[in-house]
Amino acid sequence: MDSAAESLQVACATRRMQSIFYKFGIILSYKIIEENGRSKEFGFVKFELEESAHAAIKFLHDIDDKALQELFNSYEHLTSTKVMWYAYGVSKGIGFVFFSSPKEAKKALEALHGTHFHGATLYVTYA
């Protein structure tokens, strides 16, 4: 049973890597670094174009709590933002935005879902 769970964990990491990087360009190859069948939560991506690699690097380094807060700041009742980070200091490309008003959360979702931010298309949904 453990080996099945470990394989699932690496498969999930692979899908997550694809979902983060496909938007920057054509991926020629990628590799999740693993140890004993478990993802170490980092890997390598090789893009067809150098520009794609630069855009991905910029995205991973530029998104922080301040940038996320500035993006959502125009909506009232914003209470906090939180970007998720890997242990080695790179953004996971996901974050959470908290509103005290469901109405404002809905406005932000409707206005920002599918827009572009730091070279990536935003996927905004309720958590």
Automatic annotation (TrEMBL):
Keywords annotated in UniProt: RNA-binding
The keyword Secreted is annotated on this UniProt entry: no
Gene3D superfamilies xrefs: 3.30.70.330
GO terms of molecular function: mRNA binding
UniProt keyword RNA-binding, yes or no: yes
Xref: SUPFAM superfamilies: RNA-binding domain, RBD (SSF54928)
Name of the protein: RNA recognition motif domain
Organism: Dillenia turbinata
Taxonomy of the source species: Eukaryota, Viridiplantae, Streptophyta, Embryophyta, Tracheophyta
